[in-house]
Sequence to fold (724 residues):
Amino acid sequence: MVCIDCSSSSATARLLPMSHQHVALRRFLRGPLNLRPPCCSFPRTFKTLTVHSSASPSPVLAASITSEASAKVIDGKSVAKQIRDEITTEVSRMKDAIGVIPGLAVILVGDRKDSATYVRNKKKSCESVGINSYEVRLPEDSTEQELLKFISDFNDDPSVHGILVQLPLPSHMNEQNILNAVCIEKDVDGFHPLNIGRLAMRGREPTFVPCTPKGCIELLHRYGISIKGKRAVVIGRSNIVGMPAALLLQREDATVSIVHSRTKNPEEFTRQADIIISAVGQPNMVRGSWIKPGAVIIDVGINPVEDPKSPRGYRLVGDVCYEEASKIASAITPVPGGVGPMTIAMLLSNTFISAKRIHNFR
Amino acid sequence: MVCIDCSSSSATARLLPMSHQHVALRRFLRGPLNLRPPCCSFPRTFKTLTVHSSASPSPVLAASITSEASAKVIDGKSVAKQIRDEITTEVSRMKDAIGVIPGLAVILVGDRKDSATYVRNKKKSCESVGINSYEVRLPEDSTEQELLKFISDFNDDPSVHGILVQLPLPSHMNEQNILNAVCIEKDVDGFHPLNIGRLAMRGREPTFVPCTPKGCIELLHRYGISIKGKRAVVIGRSNIVGMPAALLLQREDATVSIVHSRTKNPEEFTRQADIIISAVGQPNMVRGSWIKPGAVIIDVGINPVEDPKSPRGYRLVGDVCYEEASKIASAITPVPGGVGPMTIAMLLSNTFISAKRIHNFR
Fold:
C-alpha cells in the first residue's frame, strides 16, 4: 500500500477560500491537473489517543487510530460498472420495445487537452451502454451566438435527450447565459436554477439530479447505508457538488450541516457526523482526528499531488486522508475509484431517464 | 409580565411531523387559529444549573437560568415601522421622479374569514406606504381556469408590480399550478422554484427573497448582529420559512444546520448555535436549556394557546419559551411583535423593489 501523506496539522489545515474551491472542484470535474507539492510523510506508527465513543455530540477530541484499516471500501468503480450494465440492459429493452435510442450531445469549445479527454471518455461511456453520442467541437474564438445556435438545434432535435456543454468555456463567453440556454428537459447535468430550486423544495421533484451528488447518494444506497435521521456534514458548498449533495441528504431526512471556507473549526462539525461528504479539492484535509468512529466517508476530492516515484510524476489523493480515515470510519470511498467513476455513470443514467420521460417509456 | 407556560420537558418536546409543521406554519402565516391546550405553568424560581460557557461545541448540558431577563428584545414592530417609513419616502420619490406608483395585486378565492383578514391587512399596509393595491375576490367554486385568467391579466398589467395569491386555495385547485402561473418578475412572495434555485446557488441572485425569511435576516442586520462565520441552526425546513432562511444564512457565510422532525436530539444542535431561527409552529418547544448563553433567537412561530384569562380565550406564544430564553440569550424576538410585523413590511419592500426594477428606477 502506498503511504498517503497527511502531514499538515489539523489545527492549520483550513478550507480553501471558495474561489479556490471552485477552481479546484472544476479542475477535478472537468479541468487540468493541479499539482501540489507533497506533504511530509505521516509516521506509520500512530499513538493511541483518548477516545470518546459516545454517540452524543461530545467532540471526539482525538480518535483512536489503530495500525490496521478496518473501514469497508466503497467501491465506486464496481458500482459504476454495475450501473452501466443495468443501463445497457434497459437501453436495449427500450430500443426493442419502441425503437428509440437515447442520445447525448456534448459540445466542446476550444482545444483544451483535458476537456477533450473528458469529452472522449463520455463518448466512450455512451458507446459502452448503447447510448448515441453527438459531438460538436467549436474553435476557441467562436461567438456565444454560434454556440447558442448549436444548443438551440439540440434542444429541438428529437434524437437528443441530453445536452452537455463541456466546461470551462473560453473567457469571452458568459457561462450562465450558455447553460441557461439548455432546455431544462435535456439539462442532464441538472445545474439549471429551476432544477436546483425543485431539489431544494419539499413536494417538488427535480428534473435531473446533478451527476456527482447523485453518485454520492447512490453509493450510500447501494451499500445499504441508511441516511434518514443521520447527522451529515457536507464539506464545501459549490453549486455542482456540495450544495446539491446537502439538499439530497436533507431530502432523505438527514440532519445536514454545510461546512465551508468561513467555518471556524470545521473538525468540530465533522466529528459529530455519521456521514461526511467532502468536496473541496484540498488534498488530505480531513484527518483521522476529524472523524467519529464508525462514520461513513464519501470523498469527492480528486487532487493530484507531486510524487517523484510515480511514472507520471504525480498521484491522486482525496480530500480525506485515506490511511488515517480508513482506520476509524466504518466505510470509505477510495480515491481514485470511489466517487469518480460514478459521475459518468450518473450522466448516462440521467440521459436514459430523459429519453424514458420524453418517450413515456416505462 | 404574563407567565409563559413552558412545562413540557425538553426530553419529550419533539418536533412536529413535517405535515403538521406545514399546517402549523401555513396557519400562522395565512391560516386559522390553531388553539392548543395550555401547558402547566413552569415554576418561576429556577435553580441554577451547571454552566459550560465555552464557545466550543461542547454541549451546554444545562443552562444557567437566572431570575431576570437579560436578552435585548429585538423589536420587530418598531423595525417594521421604520421600514414602512423608508418605503413611504421612496415610493413618494418614485412618484415624483417618474410618475409611477408601485402596485400589488392580491387574489383571494373563497370566503375564509382569516384569509379575508390577512388580505385586508395587506391592503391597509399598502395604503399606509402609498402602494396601490388591487384586490380580486373569487367565489369558492371558481375554476382553476378562471383564477389563471386573472393571474395572466395581472402578469400583463403594467400597473401591477407584485402578485400574491392568498393561500390556502380551495382543495379542488392545484396550488403548484397556480403559483407557477405568476410570472417570476412579479412573484413578490419569492416561492417560485426558479427563485429558490437562484437563492441556493452561489453567483446567482434571487429575483425576490421570500418575505418571512427576509424579515428574519433584516432583523439581524438592523440590530447589528453579524452572521458571517457564526453557527446557525434553523429549526424547520418548510419551503416558505425554514429552507429559504437557511439558504439566506448560508449566503451570509454562516455555518448552517437544519433541524427538523427527523432530527434526533435537536437540542444538541441548538445548544451549539450562535443564531437560532425557529419556524415549526410548536408552542414553547425551544427551552432555555436548548440555548447557548449569548445566542441570538429569532422566533418565527406564532402559536395560539388556550388562555381562559384572556378576553379572547387564547394568547399567542412562539416556538421558543420566551421567559426561559430571554434569561440566557443575548437577543430575542418577542411573540407577538417580533418576526410577525416584518413579513408584511418585506412584502411591501419586495413590491417596491419590483417596481424599481421594472421601471429601472434607482
